[in-house]
Amino acid sequence: MPESATGVALNTIEVRFSGGMLALNRLLMTLQNKRMPVAGFTLAREAGDQPGGMRATILLDCPPEPALRYTALISSLEDVSEAGPAETIEVALVETSKDWRTTAESTGIEAHEDDGTVVASGDPEKVEGFLAALGDGVEDMVRLGPLARPEGEAGGGV
Amino acid sequence: MENTAFNFEYKPRTGSEAMCEALLDEGVEYLFGYPGGAIMPFYDALPDYPLRHVLTRHEQAAAHAADGYARATGRVGVCVATSGPGATNLVTGLATAQMDSVPLVAITGQVGRPAMGKDSFQETNVMGMTLPFTKHSFLVEDPDELYTTMRRAFEIARSGRPGPVLVDVPKDVQFAATVDKGYRRLREAPPPVESPGLERAAMLLRNAKRPLILAGHGVTLGGAEMELRLLAERTGIPVVTTLLGISAFPDDHPLYLGWPGMHGQASVNRAIDRSDLLFAVGMRFDDRITGAAHKFARDAKIIHIDVDPSELGKVIKPTVGIAADAKAAMRSILGHLDNGAEEGEGCGRWREELVKSQEPERRRKESARDEYGPIQVMETIKAAAGPDLRLVTDVGQHQMWAAQFFEFTKTNSHITSGGLGTMGFALPAAMGVAFAYPEDPVWVIAGDGGIQMNLQELATIRDFGLNIKVAVLNNGYLGMVRQWQQFFHNRRYSETPITGPDYEQLTASYGLAGRTVREGDDVEAAVRWAQEQEGCTFLDFHIDPEANVYPMIPSGMSVNEMIEEDGA
To answer: What is the predicted pLDDT for the residue at B9?
Structure first.
């Protein structure tokens, strides 16, 4: 039963696999073949010993239960060494003259300023709350994500 | 004097030899295949090894034959083809095996490494092409990896939920000298099943008033027939099976009810609809079983056991989901049931109700026994072939009639393409069964459409003297499609009337014996003749062109919309 997109429930799976392009092809084919509700897909090279090792972060737009089933399915692929849930975050780059530090603290997100731009990140709902609290004080904004929280060392995007 | 014992030149083994050695080390007896340019080095090495190769007349048939062998024996079937069209011809066979979780290893030749990616003669990306319906696949570009990869392929094919694995080997890799890198097992055997769900399942089984066991192909694949029987007998719970679960439980057992689904017995569909607990083991709630999933077994708690965790909750949300091998899980549940009487309260009354509900079906079957038609043909074959019969069916109306009216008392004696529904499967698959069990009577039942899809295999059957009996239920139509056209397309029989050869003459041209049987002919004499003849015989039964399979739950509907007979 393909899961219909909910537009609200995002679950992130992080998949580590080896086998290069063939393995990547198989992973993508599995996502398509089982009609997984993919809302985002990022790929990075793994820094470990395994040649051709990659890490894919997949955002699934479905409730946690089917996401777990899809994780089981992905983890059964022979190329996959590890598959499991990962934390989802959203990043917002904001220009504002308001007191963003207090707002960030009260909404529970991480934020810092870099060359006049506030980089705010955290749980998508909390980032939403942060932006809502700033309200008209937002002069310019770029939103990235939702995406998986980076974990460990990666060799760089591919 | 020269010591001749040391007077030889060391010759490293080639990739092809490594492949053959891996096959031997896996205990392979039979390979089903068809040679061609890119797989020639392998075929050159093959005669030096005690491996029996069966030359089929089409690569699709090689895959189905390996599939039939694997289903019948529980071992990994092996098929071989060359690159390009040889590989593409395997595709239907691989998809068939994947859908029914059959362990296969398919070896394909590939153009040499320098020629790959250049649209070379007979080059095709068989890896890419088969990704969606292989459990795993390998393109072996390092000759030193060949032996290990072959061994891994077998391990993957048979472990967990079995499935087909493709090993694609470029021609120059088959030629190349190899150094053995050694082989180590990749994955350990699954740990013993430990799940809180097991105890809960036992509790639900104890307390249910109207329980049913629904057993699927996973029971046969896991060799769990004995555990299924023990569980049923300990609890007194009636057993139904999926189409592929047929013969996992003896049909003549008092607890066996039949099989549900689109063309399953009406009484079994109703029993599921009324049940309060469904113990589903080694099955995946195929849409042919559930119909409209949201209306399926609405009042029942569901215990779902499957070796593939991604099956749990895929179609039906279980009350208790257990990701485990059928055998281990049922053993554990049996352990959780206390000794002594385990039969749930009211289970006896439930069984009586179910037996009573099957009376009309039994009467219908009795009355049809004397009429010329599918039921009579099935019963006559069963009587002539005896209890050791292994039946291989194709896909269509005859498949449903066979499943409905044969009584399967021998374990794993019903072989058919369930998930993919592959017409043309039966004849080549029966070859695999006949190689596996040369002493057992093997019958093929097919329609006049499907039999023509791999008819060329009569030559293979003749060459090897296989004792396969073929019964074609010939209605001059693609019968199941015609039936749907009758019910849902206002009898517009668009492209379903189909002709065929004169099978008596055709089989004679292959050096085999065949007979035509029509209404009024002595069916029993014809079947007895076929059974008693040495080697392959062919019976062409001309039946009512508009005979229908009943009951029928139209696709996507529920038991409430079941059509039970003409005009219903």
So the answer is: 56
Task: Say if residue A63 is in the same domain as residue A118.
Answer: no
> Does the CB of A33 have a partner CB in chain B at under 8 Å?
yes
pLDDT bucket at A153, cuts 50 / 70 / 90: very low
**Where in chain B is CATH 3.40.50.970?**
4-175, 374-546
Which residues of B are less than 8 Å from A79 in CB distance? 136
pLDDT-derived band at A2 (thresholds 50, 70, 90) equals very low
The beta strands (E) that lie in A5-137 are given as: 10-17, 38-46, 54-61, 80-86, 88-96, 110-114, 117-122
First to last CA, chain A: 32
Measured between alpha carbons, how far is B270 from B209 in angstroms, rounded to an integer? 16
What class, spelled out in words, does domain B196-357 have in CATH? alpha beta
Chain-chain contact of A73 with B137 (C-beta, under 8 angstroms): no
Q: How many Cβ pairs within 8 Å bridge chains A and B? A: 36
8 A C-beta contact, residue B418 and residue B56: no
Residues A81 and A98 grouped into a single domain: no
Which chain B residues are within 8 Å of A22, Cβ to Cβ? 127, 137, 139
Parent domain of A22 = 10-86
Query: In angstroms, what separates the C-alpha of A76 from chain B's closest C-alpha?
Result: 9
pLDDT tens-digit readout, B453-482: 999 999 999 999 999 999 999 999 999 999
* Residue B367 confidence class, pLDDT cut points 50, 70, 90: confident
CATH 3.30.70.20 fits B4-175, yes or no: no
